[in-house]
């Protein structure tokens, strides 16, 4: 196969050089990517509610040796399939229970996706574009966030993206090779379904249908639906679906009708957002690459007839994902993570073209984006410097507790430095008309946040985590039972390494849609979830001490129980109070 002119140049200039010398930029990209997903991975507490809940589900699966039915605080938890929880459970079992190990699967799948993206782009473009794509995606704030928290989206993104890669490569070949790529795509789509349900196969299928349709490749569209592909898909998915349905007969209705169809078509899960929501998410969570995208996509649309197939794939991919989830009644930032990967490649293609031709259209786009970045970062740096010098100017306008704001005041000078450094690099890129400086400017802010400004994250996480609350609890005898009235700090069971009984009117403090569905359908309440109406009888039945915890709104109920037993109520911080109730004789 003939090399492109750029590849021929790479091959000729690389002759006789060492591997490191020939591939230094790719090596650098992988090192930065590794730092983006693994750096400081365990250096901040689990965030509430998702990380604390998901880590505890995984811990309970590890303790029980379960593979099929997840539980949360002892209650059956079918909000999501077991695949991701089991991956986290394996990490906890192999390396111990910590924030690092709980986040390790997300980081591994995040880095694995970067490697797969590099391999795919190197195959369909060239090595420089592949390295640029790796850098852009790895330094995208949304990608950084989801690769280092205990949540499903990065694992799902890995299998959805690799399924699309395999389906695309299938049509680049013929015969048995094409069939093998398609079988791999079907297998990966099946595993994606095991991670988060039907969206795991819907997104790859929609992307490839629209992509082939845009090229009028109707035969390729038909090949997507070959019977053998369904066989592979169902061979992956059906054992889990049938097994779980036998163990939990209400799962087919809940999983299909509630978690999938109702989530997409109704506001029942209370995650509704306006149609333009994802435009705001891309602008903010893909910053500063998002400054390139409007002009780049508009230029691509004007020249759509001349687009290469890979370029068309990534543009179609991004549009399909954003439009699909914009139509959904339930919207969260992580839903479009795979689309953000595609947009990252679009941005990388612009930078690659700008570096090769400093007088071309792409170079002009990068220069204007650099000016826009300068226009954002310079005022932000000045504002941050002013607030660092006189924090009272902002403090008196805050609507959240001033003690939280006080935590971040010492960090503002370094934040002002980072914003200023980014502005400086953007200014150099604009003046010198050099896309390489533009790339450095766009990379600067996320990398500085992960290094000199990293302390912001632990301080923020401390305000959103149960770790500090768990650390403040007194050392109690092993037979003491922990219980919460009308509250359930996410992650508290994980840090205590034991279940915590919840006393609740309906169980909503567990933040589980399935638990709410199950209790509302009349099923028996789980052992560690007690109806508020039964609290007195439950307390009377305890033949061991109970450490009862409540937040402010339930403090009167706690004080009444404590007074009846002649024990004091203690302020344990973070808006919580507790009383140690003696065993009932």
Explain what this protein looks like in three dimensions.
- The chain has 29 helices and eight strands.
- The longest helix has 29 residues, at 361-389.
- It has helices spanning 5-14, 19-22, 24-38, 50-64, 83-95, 99-124, 127-138, 141-146, 153-170, 175-196, 199-214, 218-223, 227-247, 251-265, 277-285, 293-302, 309-327, 337-356, 361-389, 392-395, 402-408, 412-432, 435-449, 456-462, 467-472, 492-496, 513-520, 535-540, 555-565, and strands at residues 71-72, 75-76, 481-485, 501-504, 529-531, 546-551, 570-573, 576-581.
- The termini are far apart.
- Strands 5-4-3-6-8-7 form a six-stranded mixed beta sheet. A two-stranded antiparallel sheet has the order 1-2.
- α10 packs parallel to α13, α18 crosses α19 (361-389) and α19 (361-389) packs parallel to α23 (435-449).
- With 585 residues, it is mainly alpha-helical.
- The protein is 64% helix and 5% strand.
- It is globular.
């Amino acid at each position: 196969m003939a090399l492109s002119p750029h590849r021929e140049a790479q091959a000729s200039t690389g002759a006789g050089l060492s591997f490191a010398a020939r591939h230094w930029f790719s090596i650098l990209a992988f090192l930065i990517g590794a730092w983006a997903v693994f750096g400081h991975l365990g250096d901040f507490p689990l965030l509430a509610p998702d990380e604390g809940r998901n880590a505890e589900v995984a811990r309970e699966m590890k303790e029980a040796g379960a593979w099929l039915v997840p539980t949360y605080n002892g209650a059956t938890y079918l909000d999501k399939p077991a695949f991701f929880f089991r991956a986290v459970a394996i990490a906890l079992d192999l390396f111990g229970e910590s924030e690092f190990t709980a986040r390790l699967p997300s980081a591994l799948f995040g880095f694995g996706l970067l490697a797969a993206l590099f391999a795919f782009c190197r195959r369909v473009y060239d090595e420089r574009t592949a390295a640029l794509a790796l850098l852009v995606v790895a330094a995208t704030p949304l990608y950084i966030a989801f690769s280092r928290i205990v949540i499903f989206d990065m694992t799902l993104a890995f299998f959805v993206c690799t399924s699309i890669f395999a389906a695309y490569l299938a049509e680049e070949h013929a015969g048995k090779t094409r069939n093998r790529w398609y079988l791999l795509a079907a297998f990966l789509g099946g595993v994606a379904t095991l991670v988060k349900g039907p969206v795991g196969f819907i997104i790859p299928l929609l992307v490839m249908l629209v992509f082939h349709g845009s090229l009028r490749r109707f035969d390729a569209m038909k090949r997507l639906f070959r019977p053998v592909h369904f066989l592979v898909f169902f061979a992956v998915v059906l054992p889990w679906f049938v097994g779980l349905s036998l163990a939990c007969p209400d799962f087919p209705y809940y999983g299909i009708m509630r978690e999938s169809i109702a989530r997409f078509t109704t506001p029942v899960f209370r995650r509704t957002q306006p149609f333009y929501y994802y435009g705001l998410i891309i602008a903010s969570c893909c910053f500063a690459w998002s400054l390139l995208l409007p002009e780049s996509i508009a230029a691509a649309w004007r020249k759509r007839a001349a687009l290469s197939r890979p370029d068309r794939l990534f543009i179609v991919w991004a549009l399909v994902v954003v439009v699909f989830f914009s139509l959904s009644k339930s919207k969260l930032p992580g839903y479009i993570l795979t689309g953000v990967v595609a947009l990252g490649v679009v941005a990388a293609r612009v930078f690659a073209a700008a570096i090769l031709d400093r007088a071309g259209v792409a170079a002009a786009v990068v220069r204007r984006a650099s000016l826009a970045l300068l226009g954002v970062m310079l005022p932000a740096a000045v504002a941050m410097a002013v607030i660092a010098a006189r924090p009272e100017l902002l403090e008196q306008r805050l609507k959240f507790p001033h003690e939280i704001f006080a935590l971040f005041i010492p960090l503002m000078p370094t934040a002002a430095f980072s914003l200023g450094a980014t502005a400086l690099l953007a200014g150099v890129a604009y003046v010198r008309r050099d896309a390489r400086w533009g790339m450095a400017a766009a990379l600067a802010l996320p990398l500085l946040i992960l290094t000199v400004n990293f302390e912001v994250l632990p301080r923020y996480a401390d305000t959103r985590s149960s770790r500090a609350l768990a650390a403040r609890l007194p050392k109690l005898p092993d037979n003491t039972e922990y219980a919460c009235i009308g509250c359930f700090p996410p992650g508290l069971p994980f840090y205590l390494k034991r279940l915590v009984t919840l006393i609740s009117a309906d169980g909503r403090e567990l933040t589980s849609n399935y638990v709410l569905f199950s209790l509302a359908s009349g099923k028996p309440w789980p052992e560690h979830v007690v109806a508020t109406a039964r609290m007195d009888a439950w307390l009377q039945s305890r033949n061991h001490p109970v450490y009862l915890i409540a937040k402010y709104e339930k403090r009167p109920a706690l004080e009444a129980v404590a007074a009846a037993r002649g024990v004091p109520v203690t302020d344990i911080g973070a808006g919580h109070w507790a009383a140690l109730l003696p065993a009932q004789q």
